[in-house]
């Protein structure tokens, strides 16, 4: 599973979603249930586990990808300071 970033054209909502490589282009907007499109291919990383290590892995990824949007990191619960 990879974390992908999606953008909904209908309501302009941006969200991150865990998806398989095969289904990476398929995502439903959590706000309006419309089809959302994948934003950037670089915004992904492999997770060691769903329950353990997620903030650590996400934080590591965030530090390595300084282009990452601050607001989106905060939505994931990652400190941006
Ligand atoms: Zn939407």
Write up this protein.
- This protein is an alpha+beta fold.
- It has a domain at 2-38.
- It has helices at residues 54-64, 70-75; strands at 2-7, 14-19, 37-38.
- It has a three-stranded antiparallel beta sheet, with no helix packed on it.
- A hairpin with a 6-residue loop joins strand 1 (2-7) and strand 2 (14-19).
- The longest helix has 11 residues, at 54-64.
- Mean pLDDT is 77; it is low at 49-53.
- Bound molecules: zinc ion (ZN).
- The site of zinc ion has 8 residues, from loops.
Query: How many alpha or pi helices?
Result: 2
What fraction, in percent, of the residue positions are helical? 10-25%
Low-pLDDT windows of residues: 49-53
Shape: globular
Strand content: 15-25%
Order of helices and strands: EEEHH
Q: Say which molecules are bound, naming each kind only once.
A: zinc ion
How are the strands ordered across the major sheet? 2-1-3
End-to-end separation in angstroms reads 27 Å
